[in-house]
Amino acid sequence: LSLSLSLSIIDLFTYKVAGHSLSLPFIIMELSLLFHVFFVFELYLSTLMVSCNFIALNESPHSSSFPSNFLFGTASSSYQFEGAFLSDGKGLNNWDVFSHKPGNIMDGTNGDIAVDHYHLYLEDFDLMEYMGVNSFRFSISWARILPKGRIGNVNMAGIKHYNKLIDTLLHKGIEPFVSLSHYDIPQELEDGYGSWLSPKVQDDFRYYADVCFKYFGDRVKYWVTFNEPNVVVIRGYRTGIYPPSRCSGSFGNCSYGDSETEPFIAAHNIILSHAAAVDVYRTEYQVLFQQLTKILCYI
C-alpha cells in the first residue's frame, strides 16, 4: 500500500495564495478542524524528523518502522504554486480571470506569481530531496498545455516544462503523482460553452488527458483526474465563492446561476469526464506502457 502525505506547512501556505481567505466566517468554519489536524500532524512529523534525522528510504531496513515502499510526499497545485500565469504560451484559466476581478478575493491577491514554482522548481526539488520525501503530487495547468482547449494547438513549451519537471523528480528518486485538474480550467472553455455545465467539456477533458498520457505517461505511474471535484461543484455552482461564481440569490452574491440544479449538472459532467480519461488510458496506453498505473478521482 502506497500512501502520500502532504506536509502541512506547504498546504497551509498555499491555501492563502489561492485566495481561499474569502471571509472570516468561511475561514473559521472550513479551517478550524484542519488547523487542529495539521498541528497535531506537524508535531508528529517534527518529532519523527528530529529523532530519525530525515529518514532515508534507502537506509537499512532496521532504521525505520515504515515499509520500504512507504511514500512520504508533499503536494501542490498549478495555480497555487506555479505563477508565470502568461509565460511561454500559457492561456488564461478560470482562476486567473476570477482573481483579477475586484472584490472576489478579500485582500486582492492572486496567483500571477504565487511561489514562482515554474521558475524555481529546481530549488524546490532540492529542498524536497533534503527533507527526505520520495513522492510529490502536483497538478498540470490545463491552460498551459491547451490554451484554447482541443480546438487549438498543443503548447509545446508547456509540454517541455513538465517533461523537465518530471525528469528532475525521477532523477532525485521522487515519484511523481500527477493531477490533471486542481480547480482550474481554460477560460476559453468557460467563455465558449460554460465549461462544466456543458457535455462538450467531456470531449475536451478526454483530449487533454490523452495529450498528457501521450507525453508523460511513460514515466508517470500515478494519475489523479480531479482533485476535490466536490469543492469545485459546491463552491463554484452552489455558493458561488469560487469561479465561475454561479449561485441563486438565496445562496450567495452571484449575478447568475441556479444553486438547485447546476451543481448536479456540473458533477455529472465531471464524473463522465473522469470516466472518459480512464477509458482513453485503458484503451490507448495501458498496453503500450506495460506498467501498473493508478488513476484516481481524489475527494
From TrEMBL:
InterPro entries: GH, GH_1_N_CS, Glyco_hydro_1. GO terms for molecular function: beta-glucosidase activity. It is an enzyme of class 3 (hydrolase). The lineage of its organism: Eukaryota, Viridiplantae, Streptophyta, Embryophyta, Tracheophyta. Pfam families: Glyco_hydro_1. Belongs to the glycosyl hydrolase 1 family. The keyword Hydrolase applies. This is Putative glycoside hydrolase family 1 protein. GO terms for biological process: carbohydrate metabolic process. Keywords: Glycosidase, Hydrolase. Its EC number is 3.2.1.21. The keyword Hydrolase applies.
